[in-house]
Amino acid sequence: MKFQRIQDLRVDSDLSQKQLSEILHISQRSYSHYETGSRGIPIEMLIRLADYYDISVDYLLGRTDRKEMLK
Length: 71
Known about the structure:
With 71 residues, this protein is mostly helical.
C-alpha cells in the first residue's frame, strides 16, 4: 500500500526524505520504503508522523479527509 499522503505532507512542508528521516530518527532508505509502500509503516512511526504534522493517524491511513484530530 502506497502512502501518498505522507509524501504529499513532506513535499508540502518543503522537506526532503533525508531531512524528515533525520527528524524521525530513521534512515532515509527506511522512510523511502514507507512512502513507496514497499514496507509497512509501524504503528509507532505512524504516531510520530501524525504528531510531527499535528494531524490524525486516520488521515495518514486514508480513513478520513479531515487532517485535524477529533478531541
